[in-house]
Write a structure and sequence with these properties.
It is a single chain. The protein folds into two domains: 70 residues, Arc Repressor Mutant, subunit A, CATH 1.10.10; 134 residues, no CATH class. Helices cover 53% and strands 10% of the residues. It has a three-stranded antiparallel beta sheet, with helices on one face. α2 packs across α3. The radius of gyration is 18 Å and the shape is globular. The termini are far apart. The C terminus is likely disordered.
């Protein structure tokens, strides 16, 4: 088991994320002993496993109590460890709200209808999708038309979008933006979704909770 754990940890550190379909990733999700060994090894170096039953990938990240030590405190605090400026983070949140939020609402509704639950500590060996769930893409031009001026203008928008793609948050194809491997893992749905749905970011996103609900229904 030690060799398998070493391989999985090396892959996660080198590749930053791996698909749930990877044999060792599946083992970490369904084998309790293997999962506990992985979590102990990560905990020893201040890291934690990042996964949720709705995501297609798994990754690793800092434990919350290590953030101050790694990122600094007070004026030295860094908002992230990927070198993203504020306008890029704002763009990331907009893209997350337009792609992941509607997809997750559909997944949760479908899971509730068939009685699935996330109470299983180790999850399933594949995301809860009930049929292959593909997140909808959004046109780059549409996002720029709505938010481009607020996010720094055309040059900054293009540069930040390229950075998000390079980091694995989004995939760009034919002027469309699609979910990347890290988009559903690195942003905390439980914290961010209520802020968006309840209107804390409505002025930026120009979407109310009612509009989001209607958009979600329209995707089915």
């Amino acid at each position: 088991m030690d060799q398998a754990l070493n391989i999985l940890l090396a892959k996660l550190l080198a590749q930053r994320f791996i698909p749930r379909s990877d044999p060792l990733a599946r083992r970490a999700l369904v084998d309790e002993t293997f999962r506990e060994g992985l979590e102990r090894r990560l905990d020893d170096c201040g890291m934690q496993l990042l996964e949720n039953p709705y995501a297609q990938y798994i990754a690793i990240g800092l434990k919350p109590e290590m953030e101050d030590w790694v990122f600094g405190e007070g004026e030295n605090w860094l908002s992230n460890n990927m070198g993203l400026p504020r306008d890029a983070i704002a763009l990331l949140v907009v893209v997350w709200a337009l792609i992941i939020l509607p997809k997750r609402e559909r997944q949760i509704a479908r899971a509730a209808q068939v009685g699935d639950t996330q109470s299983d500590l180790f999850g399933a060996d594949k995301p809860i999708t009930h049929g292959e769930e593909v997140s909808s893409g959004v046109p780059e031009d549409a996002i720029y038309a709505d938010f481009g001026k607020k996010l720094g203008g055309k040059a900054r928008f293009a540069m930040n979008l390229g950075q998000l793609a390079k980091l694995g948050f989004v995939v760009r194809r034919n002027k469309m933006i699609y979910e990347g491997p890290l988009l559903d893992l690195m942003l905390d749905y439980s914290k961010l979704a209520p802020r968006i749905i309840n209107g804390a970011l409505a002025e930026v996103l120009q979407l109310s909770g009612t509009q989001l609900a209607l958009d979600t229904e329209g995707e089915d």
